[in-house]
Specification:
Blueprint (H helix, E strand, L loop, with lengths): L23 E2 L2 E9 L34 E4 L18 E10 L3 E10 L2 E6 L2 E5 L13 E8 L2 E10 L9 E7 L8 H6 L6 H5 L1 E9 L5 E9 L5 E8 L4 E5 L6 E2 L6 E7 L2 E7 L6 E5 L7 E3 L5 E8 L24 E8 L5 E3 L7 E6 L6 E8 L7 E9 L4 E9 L2 E7 L4 E6 L3 H4 L16 E6 L5 E3 L7 E9 L4 E8 L2 E8 L4 E4 L6 E7 L6 E7 L2 E10 L2 E6 L1 H5 L9 E6 L5 E7 L10 E6 L17 H6 L3 E6 L8 H5 L7 H17 L3 E11 L1 H10 L7 E5 L5 H7 L3 H8 L9 H6 L13 E6 L8 H12 L4 E6 L9 H19 L4 H6 L8
Parallel strand pairs: 41-42, 41-43, 43-44, 44-45, 45-46
Antiparallel strand pairs: 1-10, 2-3, 2-4, 4-9, 5-8, 5-10, 6-7, 6-9, 11-12, 12-13, 13-14, 15-16, 16-17, 17-18, 19-20, 20-21, 21-22, 23-24, 24-25, 25-26, 27-28, 28-29, 29-30, 31-32, 32-33, 33-34, 35-36, 36-37, 37-38, 39-40, 40-42
Length: about 850
């Protein structure tokens, strides 16, 4: 951002002068009019608080400007805003104005309002300061002074001007921001134009579309969206017709679902000591009790709408609170001893009986269209065989109670569906399932257990036919079957994109649907196949809702993106592909700062995960690249080797690697990007990642010195201790360390662990962790912190009390993100003020 010097003299109406090398006059704003104030009927002289009424109190009463009509205003050449006297000078009036304050970095200073009237200054609805008691007699000093801190964000400033009937002075005013010494001024252009950047406030506030669900006939769509404000947000449901028109918008239908055959909604409701299922017309809201006394907890409605299947948690043997005998490696997990039981409820008769019985957990994978057959999954563990978990698939016929075992103790099954009109099943599984039937890897080579393939399974012959050997994307979500088309629809991780596809079961052909967004976040289709709706987002736009009219042709229903980005400035993302020395393409993308100048040098932040799940091309994410870019960084993201969505061979590089190829890809890509883009300051590059990405951050610092600062959130520092103590440690390691254990491959568990290589870390490293993290225990960060402190290295550990693997509580989440911003500002921008404000030195550090 170009640093401006503004010097002004207050003259004419404002006698005296003020001059500062950084002081900024706010010259553009909005007016919300001048409103007469009336005194209420004074029935009594005081209210319940024994307080007398004062007309001046209006200046401190809430006034919500959002959604109100306004007009743009500009200050005079001397920076003065004229305040009208009101239609009747003998009546008190309140004038309201708003101004935008935008800073892409951390800054603090004072707002100074010069004038002779009665004023109040607000920031984002909070009162900063006021002088409502009496008008100011002199304008040589500020009438109101208020401190203002902007933490790489934007704030809406509101100035209220109160004019009392006996006030004789003119209330015109000038508003000035004066940064403290060593702090940067506001972004003049953005503040003047009323625009802002993608900052943390943008990420946590505003609307998001979460999901869409289409009614059985396709006549209606059920759209879930939220208007988010931390601790104050609300979730809504829109009922739209086939054309996209909103027929109804309500909070009362949240949690409802469509009936299988009818265009009616089912919603669970508490009624005294019992629970009911209400049947609701989506438009009129007319409702009736469908099930009066709802047993169980979660439920599935049979397609014939005659039976409901309920899931209940059966309580296992309790634990002695004084001495616990562990009966399984997973027995440390809360609730592990409990088991899922399934019950069936006949709607006509009200009879409620168990469907399954035993000690093994089980679930319903699918129910045939006529409700006559069920596919049940029974889950077990064998701790002597990796990947430990296995599933048995049963075909159950309720009418006869017949049970047929279709598949016995198979590994890594994700989903199973009937293929109507055939004796076959459509199975989503890993490349390792069914003796590697769907694997494209060399014989004997193990695949990534998180990669998902489609297979056809014949229930009579037990023959398995792989469908996706020549299909690189990893299967994500298979939706219902459309009988008229003889086709399934599904989404898949297509590298950094999530795309839609159609599977024709007569030919086994997979056809892309060419959705209009890079990432399809939710999709749904009617059972007749005449309506498919989806919600998507891309690198350069926020959420949009579509109806697919034909393959490759989408109709935009709700362009939420244009609404959210109307006053937001960012530089559109660009793709970057890095070719490794062994000719593998690494997918990447990047954002440049909004005020980008190609002649300047910029610090860069690199974000990655690396833990087998690909990052996706969305504008709005938690570790948001556009948000980092708005603070003056080049922001680069990568999907290095090991993640799914780029083919089985690419994903298999995750196994028994623990950073080897992944780190090489990240280091090589960063060096290549820097060489190709001369605007990157190669001495000011930072990196960050969470969970496995946190491990990658730590591991990278043991392999290279190209980073000037690094951040690891919930990172794994010791592979062996994570294997032993992480909630999913042993299960995740069955993929990431397939076949390798501390006793048969100690080199993997030590030489790849950052803790065992702590002496190689010289990069300033920030460790972040929730104190209640059961996925990656907090001790993983503590161990590396202790090691680096002993070694005399630059390291900080910030723990978030009561938080698990993700920091979710709004106030803690706010501190968490600002801590990262401040760390990078200190080491990549040479601006330690933010960090020092968040974490001032204690007496022990003087």
């Amino acid at each position: 951002m170009k640093r401006t010097t503004i010097c002004f003299t207050l003259a004419a109406l404002f006698m005296g002068s003020l001059c500062s090398t950084q002081a900024q006059v706010l010259t553009r704003g909005k007016s919300y009019g001048t409103h007469p104030l009336t005194t209420p009927v004074l029935i009594d002289s005081v209210n319940l608080s024994k307080t007398s009424f004062e007309l001046t109190s209006f200046i401190k009463r809430p006034y919500e400007i959002e959604g109100r009509r306004s007009t743009s205003i500009a200050a005079s050449s001397k920076g003065i805003f004229a305040v009208p006297q009101g239609a009747n000078p003998g009546v008190a009036s309140l004038s309201v104005y708003s101004f935008s304050a935008v800073s892409p970095t951390y800054t603090k200073g004072n707002l100074r309002l010069y004038g002779r009237g009665r004023y109040a200054i607000y920031a984002d609805g909070a009162l900063l300061s006021s002088n409502e008691k009496a008008p100011v007699s002199s304008d040589t000093v500020p009438a109101v002074t208020a401190p203002l801190t902007l933490e790489a964000t934007h704030k809406e400033l509101v100035v209220k001007v109160l004019r009392m009937p006996k006030d004789s002075v003119q209330a015109d005013f000038k508003l000035v921001f004066v940064p403290e010494e060593k702090f940067t001024p506001l972004d003049s252009v953005a503040s003047m134009n009323g625009t802002h950047f993608i900052d943390w406030k943008y990420i946590t506030h505003g609307k998001r579309i979460y999901s869409v669900s289409v009614s059985p006939s396709g006549k209606y769509a059920f759209v879930v969206w939220a208007d988010r404000v931390p601790k104050k947000g609300a979730t809504y449901v829109d009922i739209r017709d086939a054309s996209g028109k909103v027929l109804r918008s309500t909070q009362g239908l949240y949690g409802a679902r469509w009936m299988p055959k009818q265009d009616y909604l089912i919603l669970e409701r508490g009624n005294g000591n019992k629970r009911q299922l209400l049947k609701i017309h989506p438009v009129t809201g007319e409702q009736s009790v469908w099930v009066d006394n709802l047993p169980g907890s979660s439920y599935t409605i049979s397609p014939d709408e005659k039976t409901i299947y309920f899931y209940e948690q059966g309580k296992g043997p309790g634990k002695n609170p004084l001495a616990i005998r562990r009966i399984s490696p997973d027995d440390r997990q809360p609730g592990w001893r409990d088991r899922t039981e399934i019950y069936q409820y006949d709607i006509a008769s009200g009879i409620y009986m168990p469907l399954t019985y035993g000690v093994r957990s089980n679930n319903i994978y699918d129910i045939s269209g006529d409700g006559s057959k069920l596919l049940l999954g029974v889950h077990g563990m064998d701790w002597t065989k990796t990947p430990y978990g296995h599933t048995t698939i049963l075909l159950y016929t309720p009418a006869t109670s017949r049970v047929d075992t279709l598949i016995k103790d198979e590994i890594e099954i994700a989903d199973v569906s009937f293929i109507p009109g055939t004796k076959e099943l459509l199975i989503t599984a890993s490349p390792n399932s069914f003796n590697s039937a769907g694997s494209t890897l060399p014989e004997g080579e193990w695949g990534n257990g998180y990669e998902r393939e489609l297979l056809r399974f014949n229930m009579e012959t037990k023959q398995v036919v792989p469908l996706t050997k020549d299909f690189a994307p990893s299967i994500a979500d298979v939706k219902g079957y459309v009988a008229k088309q003889k086709a399934f629809y599904f989404s898949a991780d297509n590298g950094s994109r999530k795309s839609l596809y159609r599977l024709d079961i007569t030919t086994n052909k997979i056809t892309p649907l060419n959705a209009s967004e890079e990432v399809v976040r939710s999709f749904s289709l009617s059972s007749t196949g005449n309506a498919l709706w989806y919600v998507g987002q891309s690198l350069n736009n926020a959420d949009r809702l579509y109806r697919l009219e034909a393959p490759g042709k989408s109709r935009l229903i709700w362009d939420l993106s244009s609404e959210k980005l109307r006053d937001v400035r960012f530089t559109p993302a660009k793709s970057f592909v890095y070719r490794t020395p062994d000719e593998v393409s690494i997918d990447g993308w990047y954002y440049l700062p909004p005020n980008f100048d190609p002649k300047k040098k910029y610090p860069m932040i690199v974000y990655y995960y690396g833990g087998t799940i690909p990052l996706t091309r969305e504008l709005e994410t938690t570790y948001d690249l556009a948000m980092f870019a708005s603070q003056g960084y080049v922001a680069l993201s990568l999907n290095p080797r090991g993640c799914t969505g780029y083919g089985q061979a690419f994903a298999a590089d995750h196994l028994n690697a623990w950073g080897t190829k992944t780190a090489d890809d990240i280091i090589g890509a960063v060096k290549a990007f820097t060489e190709e883009h001369g605007f990157v300051d190669e001495k000011k590059i930072g990196c960050c990642g969470a969970s496995y990405g946190g491990f990658m951050t730590q591991y990278l610092q043991t392999k290279t010195d190209i980073f000037a600062a690094a951040i690891s959130h919930a990172g794994i520092s010791s592979i062996s201790s994570y294997w032993a103590g992480g909630y999913w440690g042993i299960a995740y390691s069955s993929v990431a360390s397939a076949g390798s254990y501390p006793w048969n491959n100690p080199e993997l568990y030590t030489k790849h662990s950052p803790l065992f290589n702590a002496d190689k870390i010289h990069t300033p490293l920030l460790l972040l962790h929730g104190t209640s993290d059961v996925n990656v225990p907090p001790s993983e960060s503590t161990a590396l912190y202790n090691s680096l402190k002993i070694l005399g290295r630059t390291v900080e550990l910030v723990e978030f009390t009561g938080e698990d693997h993700h920091i979710l509580e709004p106030e803690r989440k706010d501190i968490w993100m600002k801590t990262m911003f401040a760390w990078f500002a200190k080491y990549l921008q040479d601006k330690p003020q933010w960090w020092d404000a968040l974490y001032p030195k204690t007496v022990y550090e003087q």
